[in-house]
Specification:
Order of helices and strands: HHHHEEHEEH
Distance between the termini: 84 Å
Helix content: 55-70%
Oligomer: single chain
Number of helices: 6
Radius of gyration: 35 Å
Shape: elongated
Length: 193
């Protein structure tokens, strides 16, 4: 019973046409010789050889057909390359925006504070930031950021650069120490605005 099941599993390696055509004959032949590991391995190797032969035959036929249609091959290769490239770019953007955490400790506790002038958000002055530091006692750190633009001449062509001025507490001390190669006690806490 178990030997018949093993033989049926070994026959699964055969191509379906050959398996359906020769199943009864193989079962009778193995029953006459006696079911042994050698007989089952012989069925396995024969099935693998038949599969390999069919694979190489199909592959050579496909290559011959593709040689007759080089434009089709170029379009298929270009489509695959474009699809793979779009998927990689899309996942990279998704990973950078959604999956990767912000480079701050407790990033889920970050907040942005701005003041409104005539209904529009505006920047806080350094006096406002200092006043917030003295009034908000439950806050670990407050940093000021002021965005801006600068124009730089590059090979005689003006280029607009986006940047920001930040207060000294914007960058963590440990990050500055790692980048400068010093100890965290030697870092002053950030870039001056």
């Amino acid at each position: 019973m178990i030997s018949t099941m093993l033989l049926d599993v070994a026959l699964l390696l055969w191509p379906s046409e050959s398996r359906n055509e020769y199943r009864n004959q193989i079962h009778a032949d193995v029953a006459n010789r006696g079911v042994s590991a050698g007989a089952i391995l012989d069925v396995v190797w024969t099935g693998l050889a038949l599969r390999g032969e069919a694979f190489w035959r199909d592959l050579s036929y496909a290559i011959a057909r593709l040689r007759r249609a080089p434009l089709f091959v170029a379009v298929v290769i270009l489509t695959f390359a474009l699809g793979i490239g779009v998927n990689v770019a899309g996942f990279s953007a998704f990973n950078a925006i959604v999956l990767r955490p912000l480079p701050f400790a407790n990033a889920d506790r970050l907040v942005v504070i701005a003041k409104r002038a005539l209904g529009n958000p505006g920047p806080l002055t350094s006096f406002d930031v200092n006043a917030l530091r003295s009034q908000l006692h439950g806050i670990t750190s407050i940093s000021g950021v002021l965005g801006g633009q600068a124009t730089m001449m590059l090979h005689g062509v003006p280029k607009t650069l986006n940047g920001a001025q930040v207060s000294t507490t914007f960058f963590p001390r440990s990050t500055l120490a790692r980048r400068s190669g010093g100890s965290s006690s030697a870092a002053t806490g950030g870039l001056a605005s």
